[in-house]
Amino acid sequence: MPQMTTSSRADDLARMTVLDAAGQAVELGTLWRDRTAVLVFVRHFG
Amino acid sequence: MQLHHRIDALRAAGAELYVIGNGSPSFIDGFRETTGYDGPLYTDPSLAVYQAAGLKRGVATVLSPRAALAGMSALRHGFRQGKTQGDAWQQGGVVVIEPGGDVVWTHVSDYAGDNAAPDEILRQLQAASRST
User: Fold this and answer.
1) Dihedrals φ, ψ of B88, to 5°?
2) pLDDT, tens digit, for every residue of B41-74?
3) In this complex, is the C-beta atom of B7 within 8 Å of any C-beta atom belonging to chain A?
4) What residues contact B91, with CB distance under 8 A and at least 6 apart?
């Protein structure tokens, strides 16, 4: 079932990084700096 | 209708969709080929972000035999979206974050085919944009 978290802040996430296709680190917080970000986490890759 | 098919509607509501996977960066091109998705795409090989977002459970179950059986059951029941996307779009979850860092929506997928409803997210985004 869908679950709503009680935590409503993304401060921890904002400081974390993900990698782009070139292996470059991108700070997550930049994704929602200017507009709302819808992050879709997929289970698999490839 | 899955979320990534509503990218135009999401952008119209003032949001951008980002797909985050969990393999090596070298898998990103393969994901694009498999799915035809050409929007922003990143990977979190350590699963640290999945864990911080509270999605680790949804991802870890993929690795268990029980989850494999559930996945097969989901396929039989028609959750599979089509030959070219299928498993690649299985969600671990969706997190919507507004500028400023407020998390305004979270959906943790418990099983294959348990995807966030795009209409629900769009309604929420549109309501938010009207109120500002």
Assistant:
1) -60, -25
2) 999 988 899 988 988 665 555 444 444 555 555 5
3) no
4) A40, A41, A42, A43, B3, B58, B107, B109, B114, B115, B116
Beta carbons of A2 and B108 less than 8 Å apart: yes
Model ipTM value: 0.84
Spatial distance between the Cα atoms of B33 and B40, rounded to a whole number of angstroms: 14
- The DSSP symbol for A28 reads G
Structure tokens at B103: 């998390």
Q: With contact defined as beta carbons under 8 Å apart, do A29 and A14 qualify? A: yes
* Site of tokens 């996945």: B71
CA B55 to chain centre: 11
A17-39, pLDDT tens digit by residue? 999 999 999 999 999 999 999 99
The domain locations on chain A are: 16-40
Is the CB of A39 less than 8 angstroms away from the CB of B62? no
